[in-house]
């Protein structure tokens, strides 16, 4: 299995899609940090800004981890996964590697590489952000008192953990779409549609509830859209209450939303494997 | 030396293999009841015109598509057996590779996927004469270079069974000559080589045994010698030609070809033919073997099948 992962990494680490949709995070952050440091070095020193509370400074330093769960971040992840999973159909290369390994391993290796590359890129980008903040502290506004390395690491660890589920969810469905459609473009379109539906889900819920209230409530509880949004808001401290009508709301615990979303992720991953196992590759 | 299993299982065995695409009225039978065996130390040619079902059969033998009927066995085990499948090197569709990687990196990816360190990469690149271009991206390769890289990929893990789909496609005369030497060398090492081709002249020179497939069905399986013997004929130049033809037609199949007669008969029957012609008062100017190529035999068989 490790060899299959190495092969996948060797294949994709220098691919244009990886540069544009994964390595873009540390590259863009490096450019932004460098630009800010240069600007800081040449700007006229005016009235110093009021000191920022330590907790707020730490929370702001974790902003990067919100990117993967945002619509643009999800589009990038889906685009990358479309290349990872559907690329073999376009390059006609499944027949090159299928005889060498069990099919489930080939798909599992793609999962590991997609998640691994994204994690590496985001951690690198996060480290660059922190180093930039530390370097910037020498140019004017220092790091607020009370900011400790332990507190920073804990906050970033939590932010990273909260970002993981949306990333895995996006990979799971992009991978499934790729195996079903066997097309990079179709995978991207379906993944974008999924993100758009998620964004519109509160409005769709309100609309449907007028006509089929019981079914709408069931759909909100069963489908993954509410739960993804609920977990995002739980990461900020409180859950999401989704109004469906004048006297109908859906509000669920973190644990329940986590369980439902994990169920969807596992179902999508299993469907991907099952479909691929039975696929004729001409 | 042979790479067959000690128990005698052949390297490749197809048992009543069949494949139907689609369902109902739109169903198309691509392969129908194909059975054959390939043993270590031999080069086996799978001949057929385009669309005969050669590639579909090869894909079933490699586990790329699922048979509708029958079984494909590798070293006596089903094609789903990973250990058996890993003893097979293959080239399908002229070698399909990652266009954004170099030739060498493509082999590295393949070596990793196969679970080894790729120690043979440089050796196989040399063997297919691609070492100098190994740094270049595959998207810049010619068809012949891709074909040679495909053969290198097939040989990467030193397989016991090599399955090649149209290996001579895109190769120039020197490349075809090299391929011929390479394949005979593999067979000499005891490996089983199964190749599909529509280049009958090549197959005639490389293969020990051949199978002719047409419209998904196996028409005949035999050694190349048996195939050629089957088509044994004599070419006779005689005057008057009509009288000679009329005298022979009762006993042998006769065909008129460019001022001569082609008589389907063995060399041992030549004296009887001469006697018949003399009795018919025909003057004989020339009589000799009319060597049929595999191509002519193939065309005859597929034409008969169409009829």
Structure, explained:
The complex is a heterodimer of chains A (about 280) and B (about 300). Chain A has about 280 residues and is mostly helical. Chain A has helices at about 1-10, 15-20, 25-40, 55-60, 70-90, 95, 105-135, 150-180, 185-210, 215-220, 225-235, 255-275; strands at about 240-245, 250. Chain A has one domain. In chain A, strands 1-2 form a two-stranded antiparallel sheet. In chain A, β1 (about 240-245) and β2 form a beta hairpin. In chain A, α5 (about 70-90) crosses α8 (about 150-180). Chain A is flat. Chain A starts with a helix and ends in a 5-residue tail after the last helix. Chain B is an alpha/beta fold. Chain B folds into two domains: about 10-230, Rossmann fold (3-Layer(aba) Sandwich), CATH 3.40.50; about 235-290. In chain B, about 35% of the residues lie in helices and about 25% in strands. Chain B contains eleven helices and 14 strands. In chain B, α4 (about 120-125) crosses α5 (about 145-155). Classes of the chains: A mainly alpha (about 280), B alpha/beta (about 300). The interface of A and B includes residues 4, 15, 16 and 97 of A. Chain B: Pfam families: ABC_tran. Chain B: This is ABC-2 type transport system ATP-binding protein. Chain B: GO terms for molecular function: ATP binding; ATP hydrolysis activity.
Which geometry of chain A do the CA atoms define? Answer: flat
Gyration radius over CA of chain A: 22 Å
Number of domains of chain B: 2
How many β-strands of chain B, per DSSP?
A: 14
- Strand-pairing-aware structural class of chain B: alpha/beta
Give the terminus-to-terminus CA distance of chain B: 43 Å
What's the average pLDDT of chain B? 84
Named CATH topology of the largest domain in chain B: Rossmann fold
Radius of gyration of CA atoms of chain B, rounded to a whole number: 23 Å
The biggest beta sheet of chain B reads: 6 strands, mixed
Tally of separate domains of chain A? 1
Biggest interface reads: A-B, 26 and 32 residues
Physical arrangement of strands within the biggest beta sheet of chain B: 6-7-8-3-9-10
SS element count, helices of chain A: 12
**Assembly annotation:** heterodimer
Output the helix-strand order of chain A: HHHHHHHHHHHEEH
CATH level-4 homologous superfamily of the largest domain in chain B: P-loop containing nucleotide triphosphate hydrolases
């Amino acid at each position: 299995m490790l060899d299959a992962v190495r092969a996948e990494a060797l294949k994709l680490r220098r691919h244009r899609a990886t540069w544009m949709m994964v390595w873009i995070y540390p590259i863009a952050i490096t450019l932004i940090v460098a630009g800010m440091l240069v600007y800081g070095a040449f700007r006229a020193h005016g009235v110093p800004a009021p000191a920022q509370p330590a907790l707020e400074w730490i929370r702001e330093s974790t902003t990067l981890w919100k990117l993967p769960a945002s619509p643009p971040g999800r589009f990038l992840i889906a685009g990358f996964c479309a290349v990872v999973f559907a690329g073999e159909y376009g390059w006609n290369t499944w027949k090159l590697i299928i005889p060498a390994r069990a099919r489930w391993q080939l798909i599992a290796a793609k999962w590991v590489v997609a998640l691994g590359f994204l994690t590496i890129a985001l951690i690198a980008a996060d480290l660059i952000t922190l180093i930039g903040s530390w370097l910037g502290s020498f140019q004017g506004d220092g790091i607020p008192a009370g900011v400790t390395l332990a507190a920073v690491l804990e906050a970033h660890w939590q932010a990273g953990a909260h970002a993981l589920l949306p990333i895995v969810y996006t990979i799971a469905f992009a991978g499934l779409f790729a195996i079903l459609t066997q097309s990079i473009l179709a995978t991207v379109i379906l993944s974008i549609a999924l993100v758009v539906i998620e964004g519109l889900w509160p409005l769709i819920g309100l609309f449907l509830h007028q006509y089929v209230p019981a079914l709408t409530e069931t759909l909100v509880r069963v489908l993954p859209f509410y739960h993804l949004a609920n977990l995002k808001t739980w990461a900020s401290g409180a859950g999401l209450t989704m109004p469906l009508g004048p006297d109908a709301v859906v509000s669920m615990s973190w644990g329940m939303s986590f369980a439902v979303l994990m169920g969807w992720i596992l179902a999508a991953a299993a469907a991907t494997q099952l479909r691929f196992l039975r696929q004729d590759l001409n | 030396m042979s790479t067959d299993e000690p128990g005698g299982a052949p390297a490749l065995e197809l048992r009543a293999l069949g494949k139907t695409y689609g369902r109902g009225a739109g169903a198309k039978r691509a392969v129908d009841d194909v059975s054959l065996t390939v043993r270590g130390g031999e080069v086996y040619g799978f001949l057929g015109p385009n669309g005969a079902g050669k590639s579909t059969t090869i894909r079933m033998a490699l586990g790329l598509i699922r048979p509708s009927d029958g079984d494909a066995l590798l070293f006596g085990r089903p094609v789903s057996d990973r250990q058996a499948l890993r003893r097979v090197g293959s080239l399908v569709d002229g070698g399909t590779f990652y266009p954004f990687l170099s030739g060498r990196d493509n082999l590295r990816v393949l070596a990793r996927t196969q679970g080894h360190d790729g120690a043979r990469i440089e050796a196989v690149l040399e063997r297919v004469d691609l070492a100098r271009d190994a740094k270049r991206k595959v998207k810049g390769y010619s068809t012949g270079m891709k074909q040679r890289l495909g053969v290198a990929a097939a040989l990467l893990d030193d397989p016991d069974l090599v399955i090649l789909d149209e290996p001579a496609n895109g190769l120039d005369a020197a490349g075809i000559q090299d391929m011929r030497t390479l394949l005979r060398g593999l067979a000499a090492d005891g490996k089983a080589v199964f190749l599909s081709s529509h280049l009958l002249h090549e197959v005639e020179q490389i293969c020990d045994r051949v199978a002719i497939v047409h419209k998904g069905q196996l028409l005949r399986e035999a050694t190349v010698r048996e195939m050629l013997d089957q088509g044994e004929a004599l070419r006779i130049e005689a005057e008057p030609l009509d009288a000679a033809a009329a005298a022979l037609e009762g006993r042998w199949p006769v065909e008129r070809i460019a001022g001569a007669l082609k008589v389907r008969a063995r060399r041992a029957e030549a004296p009887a033919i001469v006697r018949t012609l003399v009795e018919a008062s025909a003057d004989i100017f020339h009589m000799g073997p009319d060597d049929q190529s595999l191509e002519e035999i193939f065309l005859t068989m597929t034409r008969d099948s169409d009829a």
